[in-house]
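Dear support,

Our group has been running a series of protein-ligand predictions, and this particular one with glycine is the one our PI (initials K.S.) wants archived with full inputs and outputs. We had some confusion internally about which version of the output was final, so please treat the block below as the authoritative record. The input we submitted was:
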Amino acid sequence: MIETIHIDLPGRAYDVVIGPGLLAQAGTWIMPFLKRPRVLIVTEENVAALHLGELKSGLAALGIMSEALVLPPGENTKSWPYFEQTVEWLVAQKVERGDIVVAFGGGVIGDLVGFAAATVLRGVRFIQIPTSLLAQVDSSVGGKTGINSSSGKNLIGAFHQPTLVLADTSLLETLTSRDFLSGYGEVIKYGLLGDVAFFDWLELEGKNLKPMINNTLSVNDTVKARVWAVKRSVEMKARIVESDETERGDRALLNLGHTFCHALEAATGYGDRLLHGEGVAIGCALAFELSARMGLCSQEDPSRVRAHLKDMGMKTDLADIDGILPDADTLLALMRQDKKVINGQLQFVLVRGIGDAFVTGDVPADTILNVLRDGLVSH
Ligand code: GLY
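Confirmed final output from the archive:
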């Protein structure tokens, strides 16, 4: 049940290996890339408590020594102080140009460690072992690395492709329902932006992917369904990244829902009030609403998107965000701080229907404000 997606970038090609039980076999997968039998692992406390022992003993069984830096969990770790700590730790561990650094965690760890690997000794190789659904389907693939600035999310970073990605789908079983659904926001995004058949499938099978519920599938079929969902997501991302590694064009499609999402994350403090994938899901619903109001897609499309999010038990509307939100004008101003602004013009990913997204800067501010105002009224 192991699937491999090859990311075909000239001189920087790599595989994303997807399947259950990969963590225990990590040594076998990593060994061919090692110049000496030693890796430096960077992880966070929650992942370390659950899975670091298994990773280290799997490596040790093949004679691979490992040292680990364990950072605090949470978005705040994606910041200058922890970047400095990570780089200084790698230097103190006498990291060499030929070494491999392992980013073992969710999106925060992957982005931070990837950026540290991009800069220490002017660049060392790194391997992603993503532990969250969000990281498995999105952030571990495609080489975007970085940290947040006090002015906004992901404003400091580098493109640095990993050498290998090991997405062990068994690890999804230990996620909380909330973390799983947050990652599922990114899974839905792929169907919405470019594959209506995948969205159709998610409408039928999405609930069976969740951990810790009595679903209608056998254990084996649940595992297969999860592997398929991660594989299809990664496959879509792979083809987009291959055609536009540094986001000069099509890669921006992967930002469906993200312009709204980044403003909502800024408004809620990048924390527990709104997880990134939750913001993506709400942002996708808003992008469909905006597209419908601009006459680009049918009125049924936003309803269908929202119905699936609700069916999954996900945050769907602005009203689902706890606490007070800023007004529509403030949210629009926060959107303008996003790095997806070209010549002062906001770039949006809009849709002609489910599975048919495109990028445009041609969106009237009034229509955006109306969509936000209507969402905030019910808040
Ligand atoms: N998460 C969007 C991208 O990788 O381009």
